[in-house]
């Protein structure tokens, strides 16, 4: 199975920072989270505000990203002293494949606009989300985009597949706690890969290996190395 570094190498560096992404190897890919600013810049951060990861005296730490301009976001100082990266900065300074988690449907226009400026980068991106409407819209805006459907533990509701062309549906991504061998076999028979998130200990890693997933998202890619399938990862 392929290894995906969760929010970069989040156990080694502050999550969703350039340092974390640059340390993602030996993973085959890394995952990040995006929100859009009020002026339609795609920003890499997990929460709707920077409060959890920003320095205590940082400006704008409690203001929703959607209310801030991109210039105001750049005034935020994170706990490690760095700035909140834009997705463009990550895209142009890294080479590994990326899982791009769209945190809200409002980020879709900014994501599509950015990829349209860098069309050669689309192949390395897998857009993932718990928000089904966001996945439908990203494919509407980027007809060649590949998407992954995020779920918690249950895979009982996958109706969104009916609204996305089969060629665009790359993966189903449940929590490792929701892995089911029979369901995985059924999805793979339909040409859909299966990943899981987020592996933080050896027990969970073993479950993922036994289940036969295609991708395992891990908190520390140096702690959970695994022989990757031959060839480069392609979503």
UniProtKB/TrEMBL annotation:
PROSITE patterns in the cross-refs: GP_PDE
Pfam family, one: GDPD
Domain GP-PDE: 1-228
A GO MF label: phosphoric diester hydrolase activity
GO BP, one annotated term: lipid metabolic process
Annotated InterPro entries: GP_PDE_dom (IPR030395), PLC-like_Pdiesterase_TIM-brl (IPR017946)
Protein name: GP-PDE domain-containing protein
Species of provenance: Corynebacterium deserti GIMN1.010
């Amino acid at each position: 199975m392929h290894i995906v570094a969760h929010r970069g190498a989040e156990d080694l560096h502050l999550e969703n920072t350039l340092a974390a992404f640059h340390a993602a190897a030996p993973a085959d890919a890394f995952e990040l989270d995006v929100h859009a600013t009020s002026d339609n810049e795609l920003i890499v951060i997990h929460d709707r505000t920077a409060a959890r990861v920003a320095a205590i005296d940082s400006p704008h730490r409690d203001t929703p990203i959607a209310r801030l301009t991109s210039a105001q976001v750049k005034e935020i100082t994170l706990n490690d002293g760095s700035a909140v990266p834009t997705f463009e900065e990550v895209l142009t300074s890294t080479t590994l494949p990326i899982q791009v988690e769209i945190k809200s449907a409002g980020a879709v226009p900014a994501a599509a606009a950015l990829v349209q400026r860098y069309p050669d980068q689309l192949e390395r991106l897998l857009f993932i989300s718990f928000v089904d409407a966001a996945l439908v819209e990203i494919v509407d805006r980027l007809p060649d985009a590949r998407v992954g459907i995020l779920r918690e533990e249950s895979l009982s509701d996958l109706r969104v597949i009916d609204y996305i062309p089969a060629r665009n549906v790359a993966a189903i991504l449940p929590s490792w706690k929701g892995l089911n061998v029979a369901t995985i076999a059924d999805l793979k028979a339909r040409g859909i890969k299966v990943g899981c998130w987020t592996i933080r200990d050896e027990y969970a890693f073993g479950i993922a290996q036994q289940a036969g997933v295609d991708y395992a998202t891990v908190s520390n890619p140096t702690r959970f190395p695994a022989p990757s399938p031959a060839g480069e990862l392609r979503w």
